[in-house]
Design brief:
Layout lengths: L2 E7 L16 E2 L2 E2 H11 L5 E5 L13 E4 L7 H14 L4 E6 L7 H8 L5 E6 L2 E9 L15 H6 L4 E5 L10 H7 L1
Parallel strand pairs: 1-4, 1-6, 4-5, 7-9
Antiparallel strand pairs: 2-3, 6-8, 7-8
């Protein structure tokens, strides 16, 4: 079975409140998004991509990661998820692990743990708290939202029998505001 990794990083960061886009804000000495990108790539699952939209990230994308542009990023997360799935289909992948560009403390081991699941949907659990990265087998791609601001969570809620929570190392902190950035830097 072939699996890829995708970091969703297309949003507008409207809650951030700082100068510039949050994904380019300095976090522990480098742009915030580079942490998630490197962790996804270093998990060595297979092909790796980042879905971009609101801000051009090409100057900070590490080698070995493809850039997938989402021109409909303003319409919500479902569009970015669909861009990721189109990329995965074009590469003939059977599954894709989706993570978020504003989660810098999710290590490669978490990506690998989720990818190793045989469940149609596997979601990382950090001390019992479920959040990305999430593995989506090709069998569930047709039922994922195609519009709006919801991703796989909608399917996980309707079909809990498809979901496995996988205990993972790391911390699922999500950097949304200047306060988050200051707290975790």
């Amino acid at each position: 079975m072939s699996t890829g990794a995708v970091v969703l990083a297309a949003g507008g960061a409207t809650r951030f409140g700082g100068e510039g886009h949050k994904l380019l804000a300095p976090f522990r000495g480098r742009p915030l998004v580079t942490w998630a990108l490197e962790h996804a790539r270093d998990a060595a699952l297979g092909p790796t991509a980042v879905v971009t939209g609101a801000v051009d990230l090409t100057s900070v994308v590490p080698p070995g990661i493809e850039v997938v542009e989402n021109p409909t990023w303003r319409d919500g997360q479902a569009g970015s998820l669909q861009a990721a799935l189109s990329w995965a289909k074009a590469r003939g992948l059977d599954a894709v692990v989706i993570g978020l560009g504003d989660q810098p403390l999710v290590p490669p081991e978490a990506w690998r743990a989720v990818a190793a699941s045989a469940s149609p949907i596997a979601v990382a659990a950090f001390d019992g708290r479920r959040c990305p990265p999430t593995r989506l087998a090709a069998s569930v791609w047709p039922v994922l939202p195609v519009d709006g601001d919801e991703g796989a969570r909608a399917v996980m809620t309707r079909h809990p029998e498809l979901v496995e929570a996988v205990a993972c190392p790391g911390h699922p902190v999500d950097i949304d505001t200047l306060e988050d950035l200051a707290r975790w830097s």
